[in-house]
Please model this.
Amino acid sequence: MTLPSTPTDFTLAEARDAVRAKKISSTELTKAFVAAVESARSLNAFVTETPERAMAMAKASDARLVKGEAGALEGLPIAIKDLFCTKGVRTTAGSNILGNFVPPYESTVTQNLWNDGAVLLGKTNMDEFAMGSSNETSYFKPVLNPWRARNSNEGLVPGGSSGGSAASVAANLCLGATGTDTGGSIRQPAAVTGTVGLKPTYGRCSRWGIVAFASSLDQAGPMARTVRDAAILLKSMASVDPKDSTSVDVPVPDYEAMLAGGVKGLRVGIPKEYRIDGAPPEIDALWSKGGEWLKAQGAELVDVSLPHTKYALPAYYIVAPAEASSNLARYDGVRFGHRAAGIHDVLELYEKSRAEGFGAEVRRRILIGTYVLSAGYYDAYYSRAQKVRALILRDFTEAFKKCDVLLTPATPGPAFAIGAKTSDPVSMYLNDVFTVTVNLAGLPGLAVPAGLTRDGLPLGLQVIGKAFDEATVLRVGQSIETAANFAAKPATWWRAA
Model:
């Protein structure tokens, strides 16, 4: 095995094999990533760094490796989105209202990762309560995308809400990271940072211990440098969980082993409704190229229709805020979280604590959600949105009678400048136009880097699959990855001397 010039250049699969082969110790590997995180603070990718814990976990991993007791991720340093509760480590959800919350328990997904030997580097920055598409709503300030346009020093967003995880993977600050996806919050940031992001089927990964945004939409998933790495991470993350009634008891296959099948004989659906006015020509050209790549490898392209796609964004922005307004009612300044000072009565406590604790976007969505659930408006908005959701799922069910997976763009464009869309929430929401349908239907979706714009910024393609068929989605994603041969890397302008 040839070692890279620096340990941080390993893919997760390469690092796993090198650690097992005793080519490098977990302590050496972790030390390199701890230094990388410290040198990249200008990206603001992490809310909380845990170097001491990381080195202790690495030392314990090395001891297990000596004994021949290695887990699937033994000694591999990863980052965790700050929406996952981590026992004894601050968990903020990107919000002031949870600014000093230290959970006394571990989320099921992160516990699964630690059980398999992974090492915690820290908690990554994110849009507040996962509400955003650019990582600009975080109380802890925006994350910077490691990528910059050619001949430009303008700061770009890393996508959201899992922007910190995406940036840390893109900048080689970790071997992989966890994200959560409510309307595209894994796939959209992966696409604009040139990384791989997988939103599994709803119920594939436990939601227990993940701070809730919209309970019927949220799903944890891996963010990584390669499709193989994402497959390895998902195997460890996924499980049935008696503590989560929405987690589904289905077998978790060896996703990595199932990558070898190729795409010959698969039918790939091309939904006509994903061709939208105003999208850059580069997006459409890349989509066509992706289809040709799969066709050249033996897949059959099939035209399909998802007629209710145009209603997906409006339905999503009714369902998600409605569930958010309910989930966030618990943050009142009484039991935990931020408590305002100088209070005279309980009503003032609620009002001031929530006003000081929540940012503008979270307050906006709580207000929208409360409105659509209120008497006289429930049937007009929320009930109707749920009916649209059922129609969207039916569209996918009909489409999958003709094909095995769907191929679409991942985003309507590349990363945009910080501040470019913050004054126009509707323009910001449109960044999820290609991804929200997957959440409304509860299906798996994968973003794979597939090309660059003329300005040298990453663009991704999205593969959508049948429920609990992540194996096929990953297989198709790897075929795209192989054909695209996306080897571009961002410049290291952000690295401290």
User: Anything to note?
Assistant: The chain has a mean pLDDT of 94. The longest helix spans residues 378-399.
